[in-house]
Design a protein that fits this description.
CATH superfamily of the largest domain: Glycoside hydrolase/deacetylase
Largest sheet: 7 strands, mixed
Shape: globular
CATH topology of the largest domain: TIM Barrel
Distance between the termini: 30 Å
CATH architecture of the largest domain: Alpha-Beta Barrel
Strand content: 5-15%
Number of strands: 9
Helix content: 25-40%
Bound molecules: zinc ion
CATH class of the largest domain: Alpha Beta
Order of helices and strands: HHEEHEHHEHHEEEEHE
Number of domains: 2
Length: about 290
């Protein structure tokens, strides 16, 4: 039955692409309904909803100047992958102290990458519209001092389903600070996020991606379970890779920033266009990081 349904859905999507809506192609060829088939009308409306959603994505992609519509992400994994610290990223006693894992790629075979956006300086309303319109998930890592002048912008983001995570209060170089100072930066941001946004995230990204054993001990004490770094970074005018082969890998975490023309050669929309065009051309979809953790 699952195979039958998948085939019908594919047919609906194909027709949605061509005509902007699923037509009567959803009836299986030959007219023979298998005995356990659900009522044709129910399937028909399910398929046309999918077809309509796809048509909306195609139209949105066109509106925002993308080369192609982004691929839909596969369903979230039924079993969450086991996240381990990337080799070479461990601190002394990492396992023994059960410190949060530090990783740059999520172990998965799904052809997905994850978009993470840091800091919070630029508050571009067009960016919020673009991401909702395109229905592309992303994860924010916010630094308190950049959020404080306009938390409403990030509340709008949160209302659109984006998880707001911890990126310290003041964006310091953490390894130069004492345990108490590091804890103040991390726990202080947890308290700020709880007070302003009603969230106590389990995800923390150290400013500059720079951390030591003290950072991870402090993060753990503040309720942090994961420390995602990144394997690539995208800008409006270029793409930087951690690996030499300059390719996307399934589960790669991609970093970018809330920045605009003052700091960049382009807008946030330009950066997203570059990101989505590259991801699509390598046959990847954008997944939701939280679904895999
Ligand atoms: Zn940062």
């Amino acid at each position: 039955m699952r195979v039958g349904l998948a085939a019908l859905v594919l047919a609906a999507i194909a027709s949605g692409c061509a005509q902007g809506g699923a037509g009567d192609e959803v009836t299986p060829a030959g007219g023979q309904q298998p005995l356990d088939a659900p009522p044709a009308r129910a399937l028909d409306s399910y398929a046309s909803r999918l077809g309509a959603a796809h048509a909306a994505r195609v139209a949105a992609a066109h509106r925002w100047g993308l080369a192609q519509a982004p691929l839909s992400a596969p369903p979230p994994p039924a079993r969450k992958p086991r996240i381990r610290t990337r080799e070479g990223f461990e601190v002394t006693g990492h396992r023994r102290l059960n410190l949060p894992p530090v990783f740059t790629t999520v172990p998965t075979r799904d052809k997905v990458v994850f978009l993470t956006i840091d800091d919070g300086a630029e508050k571009d309303p067009a960016f919020l519209r673009m991401m909702s319109d395109l229905d592309v998930p992303y994860t924010a890592f916010l630094s308190g001092y950049l959020v404080k002048d306009d938390p409403r912008y990030f509340r709008r983001m949160q209302a659109r389903g984006v998880a707001l995570n911890n990126h310290t209060l003041h964006h310091p170089r953490l390894p130069s600070l004492s345990y108490r100072q590091q804890k103040r930066e991390i726990c202080g941001m947890q308290r700020y996020l709880a007070k302003r946004f009603g969230t106590r995230p389990a995800l923390f990204r150290p400013s500059y991606g720079s951390y030591d054993r003290t950072t991870l001990r402090a993060a753990k004490a503040c309720g942090i379970a994961y420390v995602p770094l990144w394997n690539q970074e995208v800008f409006p005018d270029r793409w930087e890779y951690r690996e030499g082969d300059r390719r996307l890998r399934p589960g790669d975490i991609v970093l970018t920033h809330f920045r605009g023309r003052e700091q960049w050669k382009g807008s946030m929309a330009d950066m997203i266009r570059r990101f989505l065009n590259e991801v699509r051309s390598e046959g990847f979809a954008v997944g939701r990081l939280e679904d895999y953790l």
